């Protein structure tokens, strides 16, 4: 089985920074795309950032220039560095990974448990 464990959420003042981590473990041959999503009550889950196995990144417009997604393939871990945080960034953040469990298999999507990020003004 595969598990994604998130850490790094918390409470921060506007303008501050947080670094989220998401480590995948279990039966992993390789991981294709990884990403971060966020969700607030009454709203759809929003894609925040994605990163390919080769390091290509994509961001939602609202976080460009403030957030940076990165990954450490040796540790099967994806990170989200969040700078210049705003109250509207407050949400539960979920990581996602497309995991190839065995050689020759297609990817299976897995989700982290979610971590709360709260930005106060």
Structural description of this entry:
The protein has 121 residues and is mostly beta strands. Helix content is 0%, strand content 58%. The chain has strands at residues 2-7, 10-13, 18-26, 30-39, 46-51, 57-59, 67-72, 77-82, 91-100, 108-111, 115-120. The strands form 2 sheets. Strands 2, 4, 5, 6, 9, 10 and 11 form a 7-stranded mixed beta sheet that branches. It has a 4-stranded antiparallel beta sheet with strand order 1-3-8-7, with no helix packed on it. It is elongated.
From the structure above, extract its key features.
seven-stranded mixed beta sheet, mainly beta, about 120 residues, about 0% helix, 11 strands
Produce a short descriptive summary:
Strands 2, 4, 5, 6, 9, 10 and 11 form a 7-stranded mixed beta sheet that branches. The protein has a 4-stranded antiparallel beta sheet with strand order 1-3-8-7, with no helix packed on it.
Summing up helix and strand content along with how strands pair, one would put the structural category as mainly beta
- Distance between the first and last residues' Cα: 41 Å
Per DSSP E runs of 2 or more residues, the count of β-strands stands at 11
The biggest beta sheet is recorded as:
7 strands, mixed
Mean pLDDT: 96
Low-confidence stretches: none
Gyration radius over CA: 14 Å
Query: What is the succession of H and E elements?
Result: EEEEEEEEEEE
Strand content: over 45%
Question: What shape does the CA trace take?
Answer: elongated
**Helical stretch tally:** 0
Helix coverage percent: under 10%
């Amino acid at each position: 089985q595969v598990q994604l464990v998130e850490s790094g959420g918390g409470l921060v003042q506007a303008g501050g920074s947080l670094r989220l981590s998401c480590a995948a473990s279990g039966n992993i041959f390789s991981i294709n795309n990884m990403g971060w999503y966020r969700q607030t009550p009454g709203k759809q889950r929003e894609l925040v950032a994605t990163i390919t196995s080769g390091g290509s990144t994509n961001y939602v417009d609202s976080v460009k220039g403030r957030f940076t997604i990165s990954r450490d393939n040796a540790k099967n871990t994806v990170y989200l560095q969040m700078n210049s945080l705003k109250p509207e960034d407050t949400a539960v953040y979920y990581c996602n990974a497309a995991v190839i469990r065995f050689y020759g298999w297609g990817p299976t999507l897995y989700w982290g448990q979610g971590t709360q990020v709260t930005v106060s003004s």
